[in-house]
Predict the structure of dTDP-glucose 4,6-dehydratase.
Amino acid sequence: MEQSKNILITGGAGFIGSHVVRLFVTKYPQYNIVNLDALTYAGNLENLKDIENAPNYFFEHVNILDNAALEAVFAKHSISDVIHLAAESHVDRSILSPLDFVYTNIIGTVNLLQAAKKSWNGNYDNKRFYHISTDEVYGSLDNGGFFTETTAYSPNSPYSASKASSDHFVRAYGETYGMPTVISNCSNNYGPYHFPEKLIPLFINNIINNKPLPVYGDGLFTRDWLYVKDHALAIDMVFHNGKVHDTYNIGGFNEWTNIDLIKLLVEKMDHKLGRATGESLPLITFVKDRPGHDKRYAIDATKINKELGWKPSVTFEEGLEETIDWYLNNSEWLENVTSGAYQKYYEQQYHS
Ligand code: NAD
Ligand code: DAU
């Protein structure tokens, strides 16, 4: 049995964070799990309803830009470890409002590093600061190949530039102050509780409501999709067994062009909704491209497989099936998150 820990998980009310919190709360009853989240448009405590009363779960409604509040949380819960997921996560929003990404993703991360450094005060025994990052820091693979842990950083969007910067700060705290840091860079996640501004949940929601499916550019952009629960399992492994000061790439070896993925989604949704095969295909609408749109991402996940034994546990078919069923069975959740602030943002999107 693992020893007791008091783990701070930031961004635990968001998409990936809620899966990580649920996994840790249920799998490790000996750990105290403190979910720290500002509850932005993307954060939603409904995502954690099933575990909110667990005796080892705690919630702190705190913004990582608030230094005093961060320090208070470290002291109150005697935090021993950090798994940092809180971030502004949507590329399109970063094109509209880059500064929000600078504040939360860069300054917020440095604030968190500072709070950990101050609280741990040079005693790094049994401590760990784990930063969750993205493959987007590596830029775009236009001419084949894969991203490995040694690929040079070349971020193209304000989002990926802010994540690259936060990765560098985490690494620098490891080198400069000896903080036991570790970083992982993951490909595109999909699954339950994904906010319907990102491709898969947005298109599921639009197909349900017979709304246009806005395909950026020619639709021939490629992403490597990973089921969110498999990312959470990888995070569990890196947290417990990853080498300090190291980085791990996480991906599904599952590349799809957007247009092929969208056609598959339409086929599956039409079937589930009792529509004729291909009935929703006319919803596909080619719109102007995302500025700075990265052509292709593809992760080489050999290192985490060889060193830690991780590999995806579900196929894309299985994961997509579970995801579609989840959205069809959770229409109230979908309705709640697509009203209000989200709607206002959606209306001012440049592709509308
Ligand atoms: P998300 O947008 O669904 O959730 C982000 C969470 O962070 C929300 O709960 C939000 O309320 C919280 N948050 C935002 N700003 C905050 C602040 N200033 N203080 C405290 N909390 C704040 O994001 P996600 O898709 O779950 O991504 C989580 C992390 O994983 C991010 O760091 C992201 O860069 C990274 N990541 C995401 C993917 C993906 O495909 N979604 C892939 C690789 C890496
Ligand atoms: O690669 C990891 C990254 O994946 C994460 O770091 C980000 O947080 C996450 O949002 C995701 O970024 P993408 O930009 O790849 O995801 P998004 O769902 O926004 O877009 C996926 C692809 O679909 C991309 O090529 C743009 C395209 N797209 C997206 C939307 C929302 C469309 O064609 N139409 C759309 O309406």
Observations:
- The longest helix spans residues 98-120.
